[in-house]
Amino acid sequence: MNKNQKIDINNNNFSSKTDSSALSLKKQLIYVAVFVALIGLTFYAIISQNKDLTLAGFINYVFSLRIGWLIAAIGCVFLFIMFEGMSIRYIAEKLGYKRGYYDNFIYAAADIYFSAITPSATGGQPASAYFMMKDKIPISVTTITLVFNVMQYTASIAVIAAGCFAFRPEYFSQFDGWSQTLILLGIIFQIGFALLFAMLIFFPNIIKNCGEGIINFLTKIHILRKRRKKLNKLYTMMDEYSECAKIIKKSPIIIVVAFIFNILQRISVMCITYCVYRGSGQADSSFIDIISMQGYVLLGSNSLPIPGAVGIADYLFLDGFKDIFADPVNGEIISRGLSFYICIIVCGGLTLGRQARLVFKQRKEITG
After folding, report:
1. What one-character-per-residue DSSP string does 48-92 give?
2. What pLDDT, in 10s, does the model give residues 31-49?
């Protein structure tokens, strides 16, 4: 689809969530407070369970890391953001709205930041949509772009699950029962989402009829209110996926390219663990070993709607890498610190900077 073939649908799915919700200062403060509390509890649990962990020991561990591998790990953090931006840019360009690489980097940063601090990652897409619409990308194109991108994200997670069990199936048995349950839940949820997306695109009437039936039933037994509003949301969602189906039929290559960018994004964040492992001077486990184990951790991290999977990802890492890392606790703190906490700080800073720039620009236009 070229620039003269811009899609045009009536869609207000994100318009009510941007200024008043996704970027609401009050809600951000609440989310950040909960987020910080979870981080505090996580670190308390790690420290209390590892009496040998000290600040001096952690500092020595950091300075003992090989600088080349540490730089590579930091580079993977930026690749993680960049590949999502590339996916968004490619999809939007195919819909006729090409924006600069830095602009798309901001869209990705906003998604990553708000996804991390909000339950079930509900704030990510509205935040990205806010900045995309500020750059004069229509709501319809914005919605389709982000919906299509999250579809490829889900597909990439499902493929990673298959890869983990294909290359290192024995690693699953090395986790304890709690971790195995989380991993299986993560797989079930991701496969379920993938099937749902496929049904929405290829069998929309089935989903529509099921959705209407569930809404009507829940309304009848007084569990759900505002039946008409819920039905309108269902019909809006169906319209979005209908447009996705049209795009796929007109340009199927978009699936392949967007999927590749999403796979590369997942691999880039998983590579951070490998870089830290090699940076610590270890080399007994191969690249496939480390990536596969980190893949299991990633799957389990997608099992529960906790902001940023805080606590869950840490537990899974310590459980999975306890026999691989010579110092799993410090290794986890560095790996998770780079792949998540530093990444969130960078994304939050970029998001805040773009928002401040927009506010300054608006005030300048008002004052003349």
Report:
1. HH-TT--HHHHHHHHHHS-HHHHHHHHHHHHHHHHHHHHHHHHHH
2. 677 667 767 766 666 666 6
